[in-house]
């Protein structure tokens, strides 16, 4: 029986519940009872798994699962917890000031308590798998805030906020695969999300870099939302783009990007083919909403999306995403 994943948004500022619905039997009449049932049966947020996008493939993404939970309040404790080879659920409390890139090993869920902030450093997922990062504010990082590389797989980056860092907020490269980037808020920052390391890295990246970007709020950030090389299909849906000075989405070096159901507000260049010295990829755009924005450039075809998803009307995305994206918007 085919399973459809539906996302129910419970009003501005409320938590968002992902409902896995078997068949097509969910109606408005029984929505409230289904919500109550799902809430009662749901595991702890630390045991949540990705419900939509490429992160559901290849066995899914469950992070630390039912492993023990530890709370960290210092850079040394965070570094130790992230680098352990054992599965773990890690709660971050308060502001942790750090530098460099902290290695994150496999089978980890890292989630911020209310107001949790990572200041001055970033997370490096280097060849590991099954990692969830949620509800953290990253600011002032000196390299990348989150770097996913060297064939890392099954990563879920959800409901985080990113501001005022040096390089990428979320960079994914070097053969990494099966990743969902959802409900994040990027503001006061230039280079948001790079997908694909460089033009000469085709042998490692081609056939990989399958990533879903959905319900992210690119809030006055400048470029790379995302900038894509080689990955096909890359799925960019139901995101809110506001006043991006450079561009929204770029498809380059033979990538295939599906851009659908997004809301573009005051974005002169919503999406295009090629970027800088990188040759063009392909891009299919459909069902997007434009206000005070250009029409974008598209061309070619994109491989089919293999997972089920529910596309929200693009006209509703500004309200849905601006109220729901970023740290502090998930129920703890």
Explain this structure.
One of its GO terms (biological process) is polysaccharide catabolic process. The chain has 332 residues and is mainly beta. It is built from four helices and 27 strands. The strands form four sheets. Strands 5, 7, 9, 10, 12, 13, 15, 18, 21, 24 and 27 form an eleven-stranded parallel sheet that branches. The two termini are 32 Å apart. The relative contact order is 0.12. The N terminus is likely disordered.
Helix content: under 10%
Q: Helical segment tally?
A: 4
Strand-pairing-aware structural class: mainly beta
Determine the mean pLDDT.
89
State the end-to-end CA separation: 32 Å
Radius of gyration: 18 Å
Which regions have little confidence, pLDDT < 50, spanning 5+ residues?
1-43
Strand content: 35-45%
Number of strands: 27
Q: What composes the largest sheet?
A: 11 strands, parallel
What general outline do the C-alpha atoms trace? Answer: globular
Question: Summary?
Answer:
One of its GO terms (biological process) is polysaccharide catabolic process. The chain is mostly beta strands and 332 residues long. It is 10% helix and 37% strand.
Q: Which key terms come to mind for this protein?
A:
332 residues, mainly beta, 11-stranded parallel beta sheet, 10-stranded parallel beta sheet, 4 helices, 10% helix, disordered N terminus, lyase, PbH1, carbohydrate metabolism, PEL, pectate lyase activity
Helices and strands in order:
Blueprint: E1 3-9, E2 16-22, H1 31-41, E3 69-72, H2 75-83, E4 88-92, E5 95-103, E6 108-112, E7 117-126, E8 129-134, E9 137-139, E10 146-149, E11 153-158, E12 161-163, E13 170-172, E14 177-182, E15 185-187, E16 194-195, H3 202-205, E17 211-214, E18 217-219, E19 227-229, E20 234-237, E21 240-242, E22 249-252, E23 256-260, E24 263-265, E25 271-273, E26 282-286, E27 289-291, H4 317-324
